[in-house]
Amino acid sequence: MSFSLGLNCNEDYDIGAMMKKPNIKFFIFLEVILLLFLCITNIYQYYVRKSSINGVDALSINEESEQDSETNKKDYITWVDFNVSSKALKAAYTLDIETYGKPLHLSWIELLAYLGTKYGGDFSKYKEKDLTELSETLLSQEATMQSLTEDMKYYDYYLEAYGAVLGGFVGEYEIQVPISSESKDTDPATEPDSDSESDSETESETISKVWEKRYGLKAYSPIAKGYSYSDYDDFGSSRSYGYKRQHLGHDMMGLVGTPIVAIESGYVEAIGWNQYGGWRLGIRSFDKKRYYYYAHLRQNFPYHKSLKEGGIVQAGDVIGYMGHTGYSTTENVNNIDETHLHWGLQLIFDESQKEGINEIWVDCYQLTRFLSQNRSETVKNPETKDYNRIYQFKDPAAEAAAGS
Q1: Rounded Cα gap, residues 341 and 238, in angstroms
Q2: Cβ count near 69 (within 10 Å)
Q3: CA proximity to 281, closest of 78, 93, 291
Q4: 86-125 residue pLDDT tens
Q5: Three-class secondary structure of residue 389 per DSSP
Q6: Average of per-residue pLDDT values in the chain
Q7: What pairs with residue 251 in β-bridges?
Q8: Is 160 exposed, middle or buried (0-12, 13-18, 19+ CB in 10 A)?
Q9: 358: number of Cβ within 10 Å
Q10: Alpha-carbon distance 77 to 62, whole Å?
C-alpha cells in the first residue's frame, strides 16, 4: 500500500517494505504522524475550552444586552388617540358626582377606561346601556372593577391614558357663590349664560358672596361666560404656513378681546411670541402630565397683566384675550385671517416627549363640548383694562403648589 503524506514531502512510502526493512525515513514518518496527532488533540481541547468559556461569556453578554434593552425600553405611553364622546364624558361624570361620598364611589376615569378597553378606544361604538350595566354591576357589588378587568389586556393602558387627559378635571374645590336661597344648589359657573358680561368690577363687588366647599368639575371652558363662539372638529386638518403639517389643536372662533380663561390650574411655562401661534401661552398642570397651549392672542394686549413665567394660575382665571396674531417672524403682527382661539392639549408621560417628534397632542373637540357646561364669569377692571373672574376659586392643587 502506498500513499502521499501531502505535507512538506513529495515522496511516496511503501509501508510493507518499510516494515520488513526499517530505515530512518520510516521513524521520521511515524514521528511526524505522532506530532500531527498531538497538535490536533491540543488544538481540539483548546477550542473546546474556549467554546465553553465563550458560551458563558455569550450568555452573560446576552443577559447584559437584554438588561440594557429593558433599561432603554420605553416604559411609558408613546401614543394616545383620545376620542371619548362628550355624551360618554357627561354620563360617566354624572355617575362620579352622584356616588361621591357614598359607600362605593364610582370613578369616571375608571368607567371610561373600562369602556375604552371594551371598544378598543373607538367611542363611536358607545351605548349608554353599556355604562348603565357597568355601574349597576359595580353598585350592586356583584363584581369589582378589578375582577371585571383582570382579563382585559389593555385596561391599564386606557386607565393611564384617560387619567392623563382627565386627571385634573374633577375633584374637591372651594368657590364663591352669591348669597341666596339657591346658593347651595347653584354654581355660578354652570348657570345659563347671560346676554352680556358684567359691566364693571365695582358692580361685581357689590354682590354678596360666600365660600363653599364642593366636589365636581373644576376645569373650565376656555371661553369666558357670556361670550359667543363657533367651532367644529378641525383636529388633524392641513396647515401650510412654514411647512406642511397637521393642525394639532382646536379652534374656537369669536370676537377680538374675548376673555380667555385657564382650563385647568397650573404653572405658566411659556409666554411670549411664536411665529406660528403669535402671542401664545403655555400652562403646565401641577402633575406635569398636561400642557395647555393657547395661541393667536390679541395684538397689543394679549395677556392678563398679572401673568409671568413660572407663576401659578387657577382654573377659570382670565389669562388672555382672543385675537388673530401669528404666522409671522415679526412680533405683534396679525396675519391670521379669522379671529379665534387655538387651544391644544399635549400629554407628557416622559419629559423627552415635551418637544420634538415624540409629542402627543389629542383632539380637544369633545372635551370642549364637555367643558362648555362650566364657564367662568368675568368683569372688566376700568383702570387696568383687564378682565377678572367674579367668583373666586380655590383649587387645593394650586394651594399645595404655592406652599411647596
Answers
A1: 17
A2: 9
A3: 291
A4: 999 999 999 999 999 999 999 999 999 999 999 999 999 9
A5: strand
A6: 85
A7: 342
A8: middle
A9: 14
A10: 27
- Which three cell numbers mark 94? 354624572
Phi, psi of 146 (to 5 degrees): -65, -45
Parallel, antiparallel, or unpaired for β 318-321 and 259-261? antiparallel
Dihedral angle over CA of 16, 18, 21, 24, nearest 10? -170
Question: φ and ψ at 147, to 5 degrees?
Answer: -70, -30
Could you tell me if 325 and 294 are in contact, meaning their C-beta atoms sit under 8 angstroms apart? no
* Cα dihedral 100, 101, 106, 110 sign: positive
Is residue 129 classed as helix, strand or coil in its secondary structure? helix
Question: Three-class SS of residue 139?
Answer: helix
Res 247: pLDDT: 84
Please give the Cα distance from 131 to 127 (Å, whole number): 7
368-400: string of b/e by CB count within 10 Å (b at 16+)?
bbbbbebbbbbbbeeeeebbbbbbebbbebbee
- Characterize 191-204 residue by residue with b for buried, 16 or more Cβ atoms within 10 angstroms of its Cβ, and e for exposed: eeeeeebbeebeeb
User: Percentage of residues in the chain with pLDDT exceeding 90?
Assistant: 70
Give one DSSP letter per residue of 210-270, joined into a string: EEEEEEEE----SBPTT---EE---TT-EE-SSS-EE--SEEEE--TT-EEE-SS-EEEEE
Label the pairing between strands 230-231 and 290-295: unpaired
What are the cell numbers at 324? 388673530
246 residue type, one letter: Q
The amino acid at 136: E
* Beta strand extents in 257-359 (DSSP E only): 259-261, 266-274, 278-284, 290-295, 312-313, 318-321, 340-347
Cell numbers that stand for 16 in this block? 510493507
Give the closest residue to 26 by CA, choosing from 6, 37, 41, 34. Answer: 34
